[in-house]
Structure formats: structure tokens, C-alpha cells
Amino acid sequence: MPRPVPSGSLVAGVAFAVAAAAKEVAIGYQPIYGPWGVPIVAGRFERETGYAIKWVKFDSGAKVATALAAGEIQIGVMGSAPIAAAASGGAEIALFWILAEIAAAEALVVREGAGIDPQDPTTLIGKRMATPFLSTAHFHALVALESWGIEAGRVDLIDMQPYRLATAWQRGEIDAAYVWSPALARIKRSGTVMIDSAVLAEKGRPTFDGIVAARDWAEKNKEFLAKFVKIVAETVEQYRSDRAAWTAESPEVEALVRLFGGWPSDVPAALADYRFSSLEEQASRKWLGGGKESGAARTLAATAAFLKERGRIDALPPDFARLVTSAPVETALKLAR
Known about the structure:
This protein is of the alpha/beta class. The protein folds into 2 domains: 11-101 and 207-336, D-Maltodextrin-Binding Protein, domain 2; 104-202, D-Maltodextrin-Binding Protein, domain 2 (3-Layer(aba) Sandwich), CATH 3.40.190.10. It has 16 helices and 10 strands. A 5-stranded mixed β-sheet has the order 2-1-3-10-4, with helices on both faces. Helix 6 (136-147) links the parallel strand 6 (128-131) and strand 7 (156-159). Helix 4 runs parallel beside helix 5 (80-88). The radius of gyration is 19 Å and the shape is globular. The N and C termini lie far apart (44 Å).
């Protein structure tokens, strides 16, 4: 088996590729496999926007939200659950791109030898389950337990970041975990999937990963966001149009491993578990278009309501449509024509 490549190994080298850029931006990302990592490694965002970009790696969406609130970054990758939680806390943010519908890319895996029957959820009772709190995986862990009639308190739910989770799994310190790749691919080697997020989405609880910006910054940098979206969309289309080319030996997968870490052999399957949308789909009511009726706004509202009912957040914002903007996508569509 090939050795994993450390994540973030190239980011420092391209962080400020445009030395003479008049403007700068700090963007927070997470180790989540996706086509948009390829232009990050290639320095394409810097070249085509003219901005100097500082790429900052975070372990979870909750940490991205904290950095955004503190003004340490202006743009960040967050899942629908941390976006909903941040908005409920009063964060002034705008969701402008859906990185992916998570689908089967997050899952609950039970460890071999932990005494858990993958076909019997009640055998989770009394066991130690790890997940990054206030993430989409945490949200779906709570949804799964509720769907099985298991009170969360009957499972020892532990807040653990993905890199720590994978290590704890190997040491036998946890019995189950709800997480995403690269950690998910790693724990699957000695575990069995009990349920994944695609199943829970079909039950009416979809999740997604998105890119958000500080609202004031977004208003002042509209041209940048449109160019940024155009680059992401073009890479997504390259993947959608020829997924078979993204093999473990391909330069695209090599770039993703250099940025996010893990094993090249795990990446094609991990990518296949996500559902990526086109510019047109992003602009439609499926995701960012339609105000309150947009798929993103409805998903965020339902997620926040669920979290509030279970005491995970304190309040709900009056208007989830205010969190969603299709403007950069619509401008990017014009640039693409």
C-alpha cells in the first residue's frame, strides 16, 4: 500500500503566488476531497483573480465559523450544519457556492471487534461514538440515533476531529464514528458502514458542503467571487464530464492528496460518494436560486430547527434566505458564455 501524502504540503508554496496583487484574501478550507482542490494546488485562483490568497487549513466547519467570526478569514468551507449553527448565533455570512451534496461521502462506521452488530442499531447503546461536533456528520449522527429510537445520552457521543478520530480508531479507543474522508476511508478498512448520509438525505435530512463569505467582504469583492466561482465550476465540470480519468495515478488525484492528505487509491471512490452540481443547477431553486424556496435555504432552516429542538443551538434566524446568494453564480454564468 502506498504511503499517505501529508496534507497541505503545497499550500504554503502557492499561498501568495501573486506577489504584486493589490488585494488579499484568507480562505479557510477543510480536508474534504473535491475537484476544487486541483486549482488551489495549481495556483489558478491567484493567477486568474489577481488576488494574493492565504489558504488556511481547519479541522472542522465549527473552527472555520470561529475564524470567520474573528475576521481571521474572509471565505471558508463549511457544512450545512455549522452554517446553520453560525447563522443562528448571528454570524453575518453569505453562502455563495455548494461544494457538494454530501450523499454517501459521510457515514457511520462500526469497528470490527467492538461488539456492535451493523444490522442492529440497539447494539450501539453504551458504546463510544466519535464525530466532530456541530459538523454535518454530527448532525446526521443525531438524526440516525433518533430514527432508531435511541436517545443520544444512551450512546457515549464524543467530540473528536477527523485526524484524531482515525488514530483513536486504530488504538481501539472508540467503537464507532461518523465522519468523512480521508478519515472515513481509513476507518472503513477495519469497520462496517451501518448507515450513510445518502440514506438519511432520502429520509428528508439532506446535508451539503458549501463555501461562505463574510457578508460585508462579499459585497465589496463581487468580481472576485464571480471569478472564483467560475474556476470552481470549470473544475467540477471536468470531473463530471470524465470521472473515469480521475484515477489514483492521475495528476488531479495527486493534487488532491498533496493538499488534503490520505492515499491516492482512496480518492476516486471518495469523490464518487459526493454529488456535484453545475453552474446552472447552482443558480436554480435546487440550490441557491429562489430565495426562501431555494434548496439551500430550506436545508439550512430544517437543520437549524432540528438542532434547536435538541438544545444544540439557542435561537433561529428570522430569514434563512438572507444567508444564501446566487449573485456570484449568475455572474459566473455570464462570464462562461
